[in-house]
Fold this protein.
Amino acid sequence: MRVPFLDLRVGDVGERDELLHAIDEVLCHGQIVLGPEVETLEKQVAQGCGRSFAVGVNSGSDALILAMRSLNFPPGSEVITTPLSFIATANAIRLNALVPVFADIGDDLNLDPASISKAITPKTRAIMVVHWAGKICPMVEITAIARERGLVLIEDASQAYGASFGDRKAGGFGHLACFSMNSMKVFASLGEAGVVVTDDSDLRDRLIALRYNGLVNREMCHYVSHNGRMDTLQAAVLLVRLRRLDSVLSARRENALYYHQHLRGLVVIPEESPQFRDVFYTYTIRSNRRDDLKQFLENRDIETKIQHPLLMPQHPAYHGSLGHYPNAERLIREVLSLPIHEKLMPDQRAWVVESVQDFFRSNA
Ligand SMILES: *Cc1c(COP(=O)(O)O)cnc(C)c1O
C-alpha cells in the first residue's frame, strides 16, 4: 500500500463543484485584479485570527518580505529568529538589508524564550517567531520579552492557520503576522497565496502600497517594492477552502491522536501542551534512529520527509550568520515527518503505525 506524504488532488465531488462554481463567478464578474473575493477573504482571515486588518498578497514569502519592509528598520538592524524554518523566513529578513540572528529552539521545535533574551543586542529591533509544524510558540513568554525590550514582534504563521493557544489564534500575537496559503499548507489555495494581518492601520496602508510596487492610489510610488498582489482566482478558491477548514483540521487532529496513541513510547511524539491546539501541518516525530526508520518506511512505500535537513544558517547563502543553536543542531538529526494529511485513510495510517512498530521490533 502506497502512503503519499501529501495528496493535492480534489477527490471530493462536492468540493470540486464549489471550486468550479467559485472560479466561474470570477470569470463572469471579470474583476480579475484585486477582485471582490480578495476583499472578502481579507475580512474573513482578519476576523478568523482576531485582527483588525488583513492584506492579501502573492505568497507566504511575499507576506514576510513585505511585512518586514513595512517596518522600515534601518539597514543592519538585527532580527532574532529561529534556525528551523523554511528558508523564506530568513530571506525576508536579508532581502530588507536586515541581519538575522538565530536563537535556539526547545524540544517543541519552537523558539526558546531564554535563548531569545540572550540574543538581544543594542541593534536588535524585532523578533520573528515561526509557529513550526502548526504549533504556536510559547507566546506568553515571548510577548513579554518583546514588550520589556521594546522589540517588534512578527509571526511567521505560515504553518499554523487555525492553531490556537487559549482563546487566541495563530496570527493574533504579533504587530504583524504572516500566512502562506500555498497549495501544500493546511489552509491551501490551488497555487500561491499569502496574507499579512495587523491591528495597525498605518502598517496596513503601507502594506497595500508595498504589495503593488510601492504605489499610493496606484499613481505615485512612495516605497521601492515589487508586485505582490493576491490573485483573485486564488482568493475565490480560499473562500471555498475556508468553509471546509474545520473538517480538514479535525481530520488531521484525528490522525494525530491515532499516531499519539500508537507511537507513544516508540518515538518522541509531538504532544500538545495544555491550552494549545495544534493544526498538525506536519506530524514530526523524533528518533535517534531516524535515518534507518526513514529508509525502512520508504521500503514499504510510506513517504516521509525531513524538515529540514539543513537549518537556515547552514545554507551556503547564510554561512557566517550570527547565532547560537546547539539544541537545533541536535534536533534536526532526529526529526521525521509522517503523512498526516486529511485524505489519509484509516488503513493507510494503520499501515504507518504497524510499520513503525515493525521497525522497532525488528531492530530492538
Ligand atoms: C510555506 C512557508 C513559507 C513560504 O510560503 P510560500 O507561500 O511558499 O512563499 C514561509 N515560512 C514558512 C514557515 C512556511 O512553512
